[in-house]
Amino acid sequence: MIRKMQISDADVVYDIENKAFFEPWSKKHLIKELESNSFLRHFVEEIEGKVVGFYISSHVLDEVEIFTIAVDSAYQHMGIGTRLLDHLVKSSKNENVRQIWLEVSTKNLAAINLYEKFGFRIMGLRKNYYQKIGEDAYNMLKEL
Questions:
Q1: Which of 60, 64, 71, 102 is 20 to 30 A from 93 in CA distance terms?
Q2: Is residue 115 among the annotated active site residues?
Q3: From CA 93, how far away is CA 99, in angstroms rounded?
Q4: Quick check: is 14 catalytic?
Q5: Do 89 and 2 meet the contact criterion of CB atoms below 8 Å apart?
Q6: For the segment 102-115, what is each residue's pLDDT rounded down to a tens digit?
Q7: DSSP H or E stretch at residue 34
Q8: Which residue of the set 103, 129, 130, 135 is catalytic?
Q9: What is the pLDDT of residues 78-92, one digit of tens each?
Q10: What gap in Å lies between CA 110 and CA 16, rounded to an integer?
Q11: pLDDT band at residue 26 under the 50/70/90 scheme
C-alpha cells in the first residue's frame, strides 16, 4: 500500500535512505521538509505494516522533480520501485503536471532502466554531479 509519509516513518525512511545513497538527507532535514515544505511530496510503500520504500518529489506549477526513490535492500527486485514510480507518474498526471525531471548516476543502470521503462529520456549529462564520489549524472525527462 502506498500512502503519505508520516513523521513516525522518519526513522525507517532515514535508514533506507542511508543504506541506499552515499549522501543521504539527515533525519532532521527529512523531518523538517516533511513538516514544513508544501512543495514536496513524501510517500511510502508499506507491506504488512512495514515501510519498505519511499519517494520524495517536488511539485512546482506544472513540473515535478524526483529527489529520491529508494527501496529497502531486503525488498528489492519485488516491483516496489516500479509501483512507487507508477504512483508518482499517475499522481502527477492527475495534478496536470507536464514534465517530470530527475538526475541519476550514470552508473546506476537499474534505475536508468526503470526510468526508461516509464518513458524518461536522457536530456543531458551533468559532469561530476555527485562530487564526493566523482560520478556524473544523467538529467532525465518524462513529458506527460
A1: 71
A2: yes
A3: 9
A4: no
A5: no
A6: 999 999 999 999 99
A7: helix 27-36
A8: 103
A9: 999 999 999 999 999
A10: 17
A11: confident
